[in-house]
Specification:
With 171 residues, this protein is an alpha+beta fold. The chain has three helices and six strands; from the N terminus they run H-E-E-E-E-E-H-E-H.
């Protein structure tokens, strides 16, 4: 990844720390969204020439190779597609070990085809991310490799309870 792109990733304000269930209602003021906590690696996916070219951790370290597995190098679109997508890289559990298919769970778009998205409101970025994901999965043999993370804008406690009921770790 080019140094100037790495610097721009460093500008991104990363994920927030988890809070307790009892604290959730005070965040329902319209300025927050809640997302399920995943058991994986926070990452920035760089799309270049229609491929997932690089996966980078929040500290700027590469997640390609063994961590990126099935995701890095995937052809996801036409050669002119490029951008930065934010998400979490997970692996399916096989016989109790996280060694199965890698999946990229997306929650934000930072840049797409030369359009800077970080200054746009979250709902605009999420709409864009939905469109981007739909165009990308058309090229994949398994569309579930790229998913969009659920979000809740209200009723965080109920959302938290639903995530736990589905076997999740929290929000």
């Amino acid at each position: 990844m080019a140094p100037e792109r790495r610097d721009r990733i460093a500008d991104y304000v990363g994920p927030k720390l988890m809070i307790t269930r009892d604290e959730l209602p005070k965040y329902e003021d319209g300025n927050w969204v809640a997302e399920p906590k995943m058991d994986g690696f926070w990452c920035m996916a760089e799309i270049w020439q229609g491929r997932i070219a690089h996966l980078t951790s929040r500290s700027g370290l590469p997640l390609d190779g063994a961590h990126g597995g099935d995701v890095t190098g995937l052809q996801v679109g036409h050669a002119e597609l490029r951008g930065l997508l934010c998400g979490e890289l997970t692996a399916d559990t096989v016989n109790g070990e996280r060694c199965g298919t890698r999946r990229l769970h997306l929650w934000d778009v930072m840049e797409w085809c030369g359009i800077e998205m970080r200054d746009k409101p979250l709902h605009v970025r999420r709409q864009g991310l939905e469109i981007i994901r739909e165009s990308l999965v058309a090229k994949l043999p398994d569309p579930s490799i790229l998913a969009i993370v659920d979000q809740a804008e209200t009723h965080f406690t109920a959302f938290y309870d639903m995530v736990l009921a589905k076997g999740g770790e929290g929000i």
